[in-house]
Amino acid sequence: MNFLTRLLANSLALLFWALPTKVLWWASCFLAWLWFDVFRIRRWTVLRNLTIAFPEKSHSERLGLARQSMRYLCYNFFEFCMLPRMTKSWVDQNIIFHGLDIYAQAVAQKKGVLLLSLHIGNGDFGIATLALLNLRMNLISKRFKNAFLNQFWFGVREALGTRFLEAHGPSLPFDILKACKANQSVVFVIDQFMGKPYGISSRFFGRKTGTAYGLALFAMKTKAPVLPVYTYRDEHFKTHVFFDPPISWQANEDKDLQISQMTQRYNDEVERIVRKKPEQWMWVHRRWKKWE
Fold this sequence. Notes:
single chain; alpha/beta; 7-stranded mixed sheet; 9 strands; 16% strand
C-alpha cells in the first residue's frame, strides 16, 4: 500500500475499533435496508436465488433470510476495515477455531493443503486470522482494474500475511504447484458461477450451473488433501473458523469424468455448509446463470 492508502486503512480501523459492536450492527442494518429495500440493488437476484435453494419456504421466510444476509454482508465491510489493527493476541482471545488438528494432520502429509472455501460468514476475516497464526495462506482471487481498490482491498490483507494468486493469470498453475511443493495452503473459493473455459456443468441445490474445476484438477495433480474451510458468526458476533475433514475421492481412468465427479462432490460440500447457516451466505451472486 502507498502512504495515502495506508493512512485511509488505519484511520478507518481506528474509527471502527472505537465503536461498540452494537453500533456497527445497527449501521449494518441501516445500510442493508438502503441497499435491499430502498435502492433494491440485486433484490430480484437474491430472492430468485433463495427461491431456487429453498422452494419449500414461504416468501416471507425467504425475505427474512435475504434481509439478514444483507445485514451480515454490510457488517463484513466494518470488520474488513478493522483488519489493520488486528493482532495475534486479539485473535487468541476473540476467534474460535475448530479443527486445527485436522489441518495439522493434513500439513503433516507434506503435499501442501488445498482448501475449499466460500463466501459465508466473513472469509476475509477468517483467512487473515489464519495468516496471523503463521499458517501460510495463498488465496486465489481476481484483481480489480482500479489501482486504488487493489491497494486497499488486497493490501490490507497482504499486510497481515495473506498471499494472493491472480485468478486465471499465466503463472497461476506454477504458483499453485510451487505452494504445494513448499507445503503451503492454497484457498479455492468455488461458490460463484464459472462458465467455460474454466468451469464445467454441475448442480448446486439441485439446479444446473457452472463451477470452476481447478480445485479438482490440482487435487488430482498434487494428491494434496482437500479440506473445507469456512467461517460463521455466533449470536455474540464472535467468528468461528472451521476446518472440516478431508474430502475423499476415487481415481478414474476417464480423467474428464473424474474431474466432473470431484467438482460435483465439492459443490455438495458447499451446499452442506450453506444449509447450516443460509442467512450468512452471500446470496447476491448470480450463481445460477444459464449454462451454455
